[in-house]
Design goal:
This protein is α+β, with helices and mostly antiparallel strands. It contains 11 helices and 17 strands.
Length: 373
Amino acid sequence: MDTIIAGAGPAGWALAGACARAGVRVVLVDPSPRRAWTPVYGLWRDEVPGLPDSAVAAVPHTVLATAVTTHTIDREYVVADNAGLRDWLAHPAVKVITGRVESVTRGDHGATVRLADGRRLACAVAVDATGARRALTGGPVRRPAEQTAFGVALDEAAAERVTGHSPGTAVFMDWRQVADDFPAPTFLYSLPLGDGRTLVEETCLAAKPGLPQHILSARLRARLAAAGVDEPGGPERVRIPLDLPIPRTLAFGVAGGFAHPATGYSLGTALRLASPVAQAIAAASNPRDADRAARAVVASATAREVHALRRFGLRVLTRLPSAQVPEFFEMFFSLPPDRQRAYLSGREDLAGTAAAMAGLFRLAPWRIRTRMV
């Protein structure tokens, strides 16, 4: 099956490389297919058991989450080495075309992908991996709920003064505030980068529309000032759409609705599903069956049901008053570890996701329960 993948981020390269390894002829199309990946990617190690050490920049020795109290998360969290990750995903049989994909026409005998410069590329299977642009799946979602963040990389000693934790510690979230005059709840996220520096970010987990960068940067600067730390240059700015639907046509990564509506994470899911999707395409005897088989992997009925539950959880988060958000996460991190893992990573674990949400409801006081229905 000739397969065209639109988008050369980590998700696109993961699927392209997996297709090549499965014997599928594959073309990767992107305006800048060899561009460096600049975001800092963190993921749970157990989501991608085969992740090689060459694709890992750092492994925090401790993962903490502070809501009302501080909790230790007994689960290995890793920071990706972006260059090593690309090397692991790439395959020499992937044909790369520089261009901007604009649209696709699908039929029983394959698809035709149209590029912005007028070129048309025929294939058996077309996959949208263009992220939030969703070039082949209806375009960007209007006014989605978003996760936004503003961060800087500090040397380890400065980061320790800001976070209060020793070098090598990952802070999944810390809801303690240094000022009370900000309009929305935000938390501190901190991650060792493996090169003597630590990323510290002020993050708004979910808001509609997303909390603006100038508010996040002001709050992070307040944290730095309280710790007596000067702000370095080169900030990282994050904007992740959270409530994207799982489309009816074939898409992968963020375009395929992989971003977790409550965390924004999608990389682990893309790395885990790349090989099964490629194998499904390779095993099919015609374009229609290949497309259907690939969609069955990324958009099964169970995955859609779990995604719907997670999107409901997102709506609950965005309805909570600021003062109740830390209390909500105090309840979440009081759940048994398997319930936490099911909600954070169980894309097809309908029973585990429902059990986690039911457990939260049982723990919640009435003032929060009324916003969970």
